[in-house]
Hints:
Elements: H1 14-27, E1 31-35, E2 47-51, E3 54-61, H2 72-83, E4 88-92, E5 101-106, E6 110-113, H3 121-130
Parallel strand pairs: 3-4
Antiparallel strand pairs: 1-2, 2-3, 4-5, 5-6
Amino acid sequence: MLHQKKSKSKRLSEKKIWNKLNLFQKEHKEAYFCKIESPTMNGIPDVHCVFKGYIFWLELKANPGKNYGVSKYQIVWHLKYRRAGGNVFILNQPFVDRAPKLLAVEEPGVVLPVPHNFIPVPVLDIITWMAR
């Protein structure tokens, strides 16, 4: 009896996700992404984005685990920003061979996938490009 080996998916890192986003920005002149490193503000997302006139933030995650590795500080930041009318998402892609997922923090602080028909078109364009 032959045993088939389970193929292990190659893991991605947040840095590799950023590298893909940066490549997207280089290929699309209507995109502007600015990576933020803030030791003074807990919970601020990783990337400030403008694409096709749509302004939003992205938190980059490469975590298949519970709550996708989103911290309590990030949850609070996302909720406050969204309550003020801002657009913020979590881009999670833990494995190379799987498409990225777009997530959002919903009241009362739960991380959930964004339904496909609720993803803004500019963000959907980015997700689709990254999945290729």
